[in-house]
Amino acid sequence: MNAKEELEKLGLEKMVDYIYADPEKNLPKIMDWADRFSGGKLGPARAMVRKVIEDKDSPYHTFITKHILQETNKDVTKTIAVNFFINAGLSGWQKQEAARAKYGCNIPWAILLDPTSACNYHCTGCWAAEYGNRLNLSLEEIDSIIRQGKELGVYFYIYTGGEPLVRKADLIRLCEMHPDCIFLSFTNGSLIDEKFADDMLRVKNFIPAISLEGFEKATDGRRGTGAFERVLHAMKLLRERGLVYGISSCYTKANFDSITSEEYFDMLVEQGVYFIWYFHYMPVGNDATPDLLPTKDQRIEAYRRIRKYRAEKPLFAIDFQNDGEYIGGCVAGGRRYLHINANGDVDPCVFIHYSNANIREMSLLDALRSPIFMAYHDNQPFNKNMLRPCPMLENPDMLRKMVKETGAKSTDLQSPESADHLCAKCDEYAKTWAPAAKELWENSKNGKKALNEEKAKEAAEKANAEEAAGKTGGVDETQGSRKTA
Ligand code: SF4
Questions:
Q1: Could you tell me how far CA 399 lies from the centroid of its own chain?
Q2: Rounded to an integer, what distance in angstroms lies between the CA atom of residue 383 and that of residue 328?
Q3: Is ligand 1 within 6 A of the CB of residue 332?
Q4: For 189-207, how does the pLDDT look when each residue is reduced to its tens digit (9 = 90+)?
């Protein structure tokens, strides 16, 4: 019996009850059990979890034993654990693997989609307000995407936009229609009220990731007066109900210092935030300026700071552009996720708006087999250095080539931007970042490991080639001797 079957037999829900009965005593027992039945397949994540459970000084020890097991609603924890770890993780992953093998294309682990292009805010530099209410995926269309996704093993859906909570009644309805899935939504937080928080508590499978630009001045400066206060109020409502919530923050050249500061991180810990997703500014869109791209030194500092906070503070942080080493580089093009906009266009990535597929005209599987998705599939990883994962930001020639060769069209209906225009904004950045990325990568643990593996592979290939040449040489000698004779 494998780990998955054993987990399902025991029932993760029962396991959660067992942990709750006496976390300090029962968590290590569960780890022993997981060790026994996984046959070592849980890998480094298991070792990390065990360390956290056993080390009372680890910041994540209290995070798990207090924040998750005491302050979070028990039924919410159970639902998230089952939907995320079993449905989206273990069993979903197996289905995805089978589909990858069967169809010879990327199959995602998560699907990002825009329920609407509408937004209730008018942020500086954001196109959503200009789109107005024109573009929406209907409830039936989103339901169809999820049904098709589940056939392929996808149980994790992430909403972006626009402001997804403009459609909050439909989003709750989708949680009810698909209680086996986990839903996460980027949001400005302003539409989280008592009623919506109660609905979230009822369905249990919806997690908001609230966007913050930093502290009050920065957030209100971009999103309007009172935006920061509204986020604090939303977090209070969520906290009072024991719901799980995170923060999404984008670092730019202008806000870098404050948004990656220890003070900012500590404020989020105090607010009971469970995770923060850091995004690197991308100059996507005809009006987006490359002047806001973080400098080389800022990116190096982001790499250091976020790794340090992650090790020392009880807040799970992901720095998407610098964490490629943990996920094998670029995750787009369906390798781990894709993006469907409010017009139904299926983009490889939330930042890469070029496509040959629209979900209103073809199935999800056919979109995954469309030309630009296959170009992603065939070219990933785009760089051996995991600190240069992106076909746009760090390898702009790659995106130019893929868009040209596949004939993918811009899906930005407001102001279509050519791949050449977009990539030209990244050329200088990519050139400046390459040597810094080389140094960081070659001095990192995973970088050294990857380089050693590469050398070993090259040596093995060379030895094989020499052996083959030796054999060939023998034939040639024979032929030569024949000739001589
Ligand atoms: S295309 Fe670029 S931004 Fe999108 S997932 Fe890949 S590396 Fe990240």
A1: 20
A2: 10
A3: yes
A4: 999 999 999 999 999 999 9
Ligand 1 in reach of 237 Cβ (< 6 A): no
Sign of CA pseudo-dihedral 309, 314, 315, 319: positive
| Probe residue for ligand 1, chosen from 387, 390, 398, 403 as the CB with the greatest number of ligand atoms within 8 Å | 390
State how far the Cα of 372 lies from the Cα of 354, in Å rounded to an integer.
8
How far, in Å, CA of 180 to CA of 175, rounded?
A: 9
- Rounded to the nearest angstrom, the distance between the alpha carbon of 279 and the centre of ligand 1 is 11
Question: Is 396:452 a contact under the CB 8 Å cutoff?
Answer: no
pLDDT, one tens digit per residue, over 103-127 is: 999 999 999 999 999 888 877 656 5
SS3 content of the chain, % helix, strand, coil (to 5): 60, 10, 30
pTM for the whole thing?
A: 0.90
The token pair that represents 408 in the structure block: 């993918």
Ligand 1: atom nearest CA of 392 is 2
Atom of ligand 1 nearest to the CA of 282: 3
How far is ligand 1, taken at its centre, from the CA of residue 349, in Å? 6
Q: What secondary structure, in 3-state letters, does 101-152 show?
A: HHHCCCCCCEEEECCECCCCCCCCCCCHHHHCCCCECCHHHHHHHHHHHHHC
352 lines ligand 1 (CB under 6 A): yes
The residue behind tokens 């654990």 is 81
Per-residue b or e along 17-51, where b marks 16 or more CB atoms closer than 10 Å to that residue's CB: ebbeeebeeebeebbebbeebbeeebeeeeeebbe
From the centroid of its chain, how far is CA 314?
A: 20
